[in-house]
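Progress against Task 2.4 (sequence-to-structure conversion) is shown through the following example record, which the project officer requested during the mid-term review.
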Amino acid sequence: MENHQNKTTEQLFPLPSPSGKLDGASLPGLPLPLTRLLGRAQEVEEGERLLHNTQVRLLTVTGTGGVGKTRVALAIAAQVQHDFPDGAYLFNLAPVQDASFVLPTLLEAFSFQQKSAHPPLEELIISLRTRHLLLVLDNFEQVIGASPLLVELLTSCPALKVVVTSRERLHVRGEHELELQPLALPGPQMPVGPEALAQYGAIALFVERAQATLPSFQMTAENAPLVVAICQRLDGLPLALELAAARLGVLSLHALHQRLTRRLTLLTNGPRDLPARQQTLRATLQWSYDLLTPLEQRTYRRLSAFVGGCTLPILAAISAWPESETATLEDTATSLLSKHLLVRREQEHDEPRFVMLETVREFGWEQLVICQEAEMVRAAQARYFVQLAEAAASSSGSEQENWFERLEWERENLRMTLQWLVEHAEQEHNAEMALRLAGAIARFWTVRWYRWSSSQERDWVERTLGLKVEVSPEVKARALQAAAWLALVQDDGEQAERFYQESLRCFGEAEDARGSAVASYWLGYLAWVVHQDGKQAQSLLAQCSRLTKDDPIVLALARITAGNIALDQGELTEAQTCLEQSVALCRTTKQKKNLARALRSMGRLRFAQGETTDARSLFEESLALCRETKEAFHLARALDLLGQLELEQGNAELAQPWLEEARRSYHALGTQRHLAWASLRLAEAARQQEKYEVAHACYRKSLELFERLNETEGIASVLRSWGQLAAQQHKLQWAARLWGASQVWSQRKTSPHFSLPVDHLQPTGANNEPVVVAVRQQLGPQAFTAAWEEGQGMSPARLLAAQTLHEPVASQSPTPLRREVGPSHLTEREIEVLRLVARGHTDAQIAEALVISPRTVHAHLRSIYSKLGLSSRFAAIRYALDAHLL
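Structure tokens generated for the chain above:
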């Protein structure tokens, strides 16, 4: 005990003078930090504010291990120490293993007499009663039983204040808590520049500590995303960030990020002057774990098996926790919360959710494996989540939406369960459960689109199907539907079609009419989108409608798709019939998701009929419904169409925000082809506004994406439109090269069979012959032909490189290109329409003035755009002015 106390006393700064008096004149009496405290300005300010309050006598700084409690407590003490004439003192209580030793430790430090007739507590009170002191008691969690002692001291010593650091609250009278969260991290829409990112505490700390290890290290625009990813993977925990930064002496940023899949193994070798528990992340977490009761340890281990946390009923279910002991489970979870090993998150209309920081969860999983409980817990989770998914799949109506939200919360646990079942599919029971789980989730993958699916899920489901497990036809059919959907949303239409065909056969064998109807619907959809086979598509959709005449959801989808096919084929009357039926059905049965799709298609139809005002209203209503129902993919498509509509009306400035939001949505969804088309449309919007640098950047991005996808139509469209920009900037040879290359790609038919349609309000292969003629005239036939032929031999990559090296973007608007193609190419009626457009008339006003239908006006405008190589109303107005038609 004597050695123990001496060791503890050495941790006191400063020690009392030999005379037995506190040397208040020797301030500051706190250890001076050797590194900056970053990202904690608000917490220190709040702690200082609390201690300046005369009503606050006991401040407990709490937080999980490695969050930086000691540094913050010392920073707060340093800010207020001049308010305490008799000193501010730090006790490190880490070596004290028993709460009964706290009083002797304090007494030894502050007692005026070596011997006293008074009891120890009374002697300490006598010593401190008149002193204006601030005590900082570090690592109090392991001696939390001594908390009443602090209350006694504070009650009897009116000028004393105490700051405690602990991984849990003391739960005593007069306590005020300052809870520390991990350092701030950027969210999904993170800033793009290093300067903005450096404002986040976690980023700033990592960068500064990295520079201490590697002085040449700098955060740049190129490596910033990797820095952010590392800090996010480490949960913003200061200790973890410092240990990771120290590894940059031997690892690159990329290697460090890859190695952090096993954080606890990597994050070791902290500074030797720190306590042993802070030299590795594992030791810090072991310290917390060892302080738990056996029941708390078991609960912590079980909770660590969940990705993204769980509710207490789920934990009880997989742990076989007796219902009679629910209160005990609640008490245990409350204790883990107070020790900052759990975080509580509220869920709307459901039980609160308990989650862990990933570093804390990784340690808990290690303990689960050490205790040989991992396989048992995973098997219990599999049974629970398969039953949950199957119950959700059998729901309908408004009840189904509630199930959707519940499954959305469990999406990471469902994903983890599917992976575990597939990896253990050598046991036939697990293989069957994997197929059951995939089949049950398929319906939600379908409705929620990209919010769940990924290439990993697709691989897992296809691997399990390849095992040829003996299961019922219905189970296999639903798993095949899951595999088909995962292929479809990754734009692999041919593979999706094969899976849907096999699922149709299995549903027929199982005599499942609804399953057969759904498979028929998707086969009809793919017959058109992939093969452009309208006859086969309509036949399959009709079959779907016959099979599902009593199911309004599938019937509505079939009518929407039939309407889209008719619209794409130019059969506007048939399209209108189908789409009006689908809209009426969706409104009657309150199908908001399908109604959003039907309205978007109806908007395309109205645009084709020349009713642009109606089209805009329909797109806007569709967009509002998508926002309400969180339909991310269909929301992006509605945004895209609104942007295209404004472009066609010559309103590039209005189109730009719609298209930018659409592009961000496509990027988040991972739909690369849609992202490429959105980038192309943004380039065209920038070109119309003469924002040439923006236009060039968007053209480059779009071309890079299309080339990666081998999307020949997209490549040809980019090169054709980019040539328009080059001509507009008087880069005439570049225009000819780009058009030459565009011609080559427009003749190729090597694009893969995509399964996700891209909405185009206008044909993508618009005729730009008038502009080509004008450029040929100005360059001369020989020079034009040479540039054209040179472009025909250039790959997109070579064009990009050559444009970057040799064709700097003009900083000012060039002289407009003189066109040699005049109104003589237009009919008399087209000239009348063009004049009215230039005077600012809408399509409806033009129709009224010329006594024709809006649909006919729209047809005339398409012809005008095609003949003159124009892409928007704005360009048509400029042409009319240049041609002196007014």
